[in-house]
């Protein structure tokens, strides 16, 4: 079978030509194998994605390729499950290192993993080693595994977003997110099991101008945009122009971060490293004009950490001239300024060259609009402790659905609030894959409840220092930084990235970050 994307593209072209003017119950399009259904026939309302003939496995449709979705399909046994990943992104993003890529400490490539590759890039390396060592028996075995996999693919990616779920008929409707393919050409995918792992969006509190002018840090695309903005004509290059007044230089080189949680703090720290380690060599005359400011409505930053650690971070920032303005409420954002209610309750306008917005999570619009599952007040999907969702029935009853699961930032277990972190998302995903594999092997469907193993929290605060709050107590400074780097290095997925990440850390330390703009 060709790639699903290609199959989809072919199908859509074929369908458009074959679509009748009058409605028919079922039409089979010979070349593409795509069927059209009337809404009342088996529940299909759109074209149906073709299923592989003679595939005895159950189909697991996974919505999302983030921490939850990616870890789920990587650990599902392909012997028992055919995985279809529906996501607008063809890759997984290793978010803890995203701030590093926004300032060039790491290249964007090393924090993403291709969904299709499933993090198995090691195969090519081990193939070469086997050939070199002439271990023909192993090479033969590997070839036969590959042949099997090519007839029954382990994971299929559909670059699309889910728009609707029909739990009664086990159908999810998706809308393609591929250039030149009409997003209105929605189609249906039939599932045996469905995992909803679509994550959340960035919270803006509907503050005017945020969506238009602020930069978010959720994806590699955002990181690349931020990096370009810092280096381009809007910040350093513009400020360097001799025509600029001192006041204008100060505005252009004012880097504002709204949100003093771990993401905002880590970005401020990485930005400070970039300026301190590299930019000051290229633009020494501009250094007196550079300012980094973190704004937060709360009384202190890093509220998820113990006060002693957040105070340590605040002191470290103040020593490095990073301003922290707490008790400040942003009211409006324009293309070059923030209107705030300041610490004294007065209105104030703050000009900026770059504004990064990181004030928490807002529900994914798909989840917000999904009225077939039970949700809590924050619009998180509510699950039982085996991650099953509660289906809402027309009469108002909520019934546990054993074939639909929700995990990651978009879901919460009833009566047990857990933070929206990669740690929780990946643990839930690994738990679910284990239970599904066990169910397929033993045919029993009783799941053990999910138990979260809290491994603590950590944040980088710049200058090779970090804070770590774990089961073994609190660590701060250089030792914490080593723990921080060690933890994220070991959690990175593919062997390729495990090799590239330390190489970038080392070369950037030795030669400086790449500040070229393209
Ligand atoms: C910069 C940054 C740093 C972070 N650092 C840490 C850290 O150090 N430690 C930690 O524990 N956590 C960290 N987090 C939080 C962590 O990344 C999230 O908790 C985690 O990504 C949640 O995983 P998820 O799979 O639920 O959602 P996501 O990772 O956001 O993935 C959601 C997926 O769903 C897809 N999607 C969206 N809508 C649809 C749709 N309608 N249909 C289909 N697919 C859809 C998206 O494209 C994406 O692939 C960080 C987050 C950020 C942004």
UniProtKB/TrEMBL annotation:
What is a single molecular function from GO for this protein? NADH dehydrogenase activity
InterPro entries per the UniProt record, alphabetical: FAD/NAD-bd_sf, FAD/NAD-binding_dom, NDH-2, NDH2-like_C
| Domain of life from the UniProt record | Eukaryota
- Pinpoint the External alternative NADH-ubiquinone oxidoreductase-like C-terminal domain residues: 455-514
Transmembrane domains' residue ranges = none
An annotated GO cellular component: mitochondrion
What are the FAD/NAD(P)-binding domain coordinates in residue numbering?
A: 59-429
Q: Which keywords does this Swiss-Prot/TrEMBL entry list?
A: FAD, Flavoprotein, NAD, Oxidoreductase
Alphabetical list of Gene3D superfamilies matching this protein = 3.50.50.100
Q: Spell out the family assignment given in the record's similarity comment.
A: Belongs to the NADH dehydrogenase family.
Q: What is this protein called?
A: Uncharacterized protein
This protein's species is: Lipomyces starkeyi NRRL Y-11557
